[in-house]
Design brief:
This protein has two domains: about 90 residues, no CATH class; about 80 residues, Ribosomal protein S6/Translation elongation factor EF1B (Alpha-Beta Plaits, 2-Layer Sandwich). Helices cover about 60% and strands about 10% of the residues. The protein contains four helices and four strands. A hairpin with a 4-residue loop joins strand 2 and strand 3. It is rod-shaped and about 145 Å long.
Length: about 180
């Protein structure tokens, strides 16, 4: 209790005459206050920025890992892209151009004749442009056997250009016995 009595009987004008225990108490109290204010103004802001930067560091590490994984596969992906571009160029070369369209129609007609089919109708339709190609329907009517028709389909499929056959209204009817 003497400490509390010493604090109550302090003379503010004579700080040097204060008891040693009171001087130590106020020195520790003043140092604690200075440390608290210093921490509040200096360390707290630094700690907040440290936390922010630590979060950013984690984000950058993840981003780095992702990019590193991509870069490891970059050479293989680049090679795959080159191969795909070569394949696209080859496929585009197989598509007939406008100048090759008459030749293609002739090839289709000759394929029908070589298969032994009799051409009843060969009528090219209007061209419909698409992204990489143009569609040109051809109305065809043939007379022949089932096997001749199969040979025709096989012959068209083996043409050097891309020809897509979509068969509409296909009908097979037996040949009448009185027609040779």
């Amino acid at each position: 209790m003497s400490f509390f009595n010493d604090i109550q009987n302090l003379d503010r004008n004579n700080v040097g005459g204060w008891p040693q225990s009171v001087k130590i108490f106020f020195t520790v109290l003043l140092m604690g206050f200075v440390l608290l204010v210093g921490w509040y103004f200096f360390v707290s802001d630094q700690q907040d920025s440290l936390n922010t930067l630590a979060g950013k560091e984690n984000q950058l590490k993840q981003e780095f890992s992702t990019k590193q994984a991509k870069s490891v596969n970059l050479e293989a992906l680049q090679q795959q892209l080159d191969e795909m571009q070569d394949m696209l160029r080859q496929l585009l070369r197989q598509l007939p151009s406008k100048t090759e369209m008459p030749e293609l129609l002739t090839d289709i007609s000759q394929t029908a004749q070589s298969a032994g089919l009799e051409t009843d109708l060969f009528q090219p339709g209007a061209e419909t442009p698409k992204d990489f190609y143009a569609e040109r329907p051809i109305a065809l009517r043939f007379t022949g056997t089932y096997h001749q028709f199969g040979m025709f389909i096989s012959g068209v499929a083996s043409l050097p250009r891309v020809v897509i056959l979509t068969l509409h209204d296909v009908s097979l009817t037996p040949k009448s016995p009185n027609k040779g």
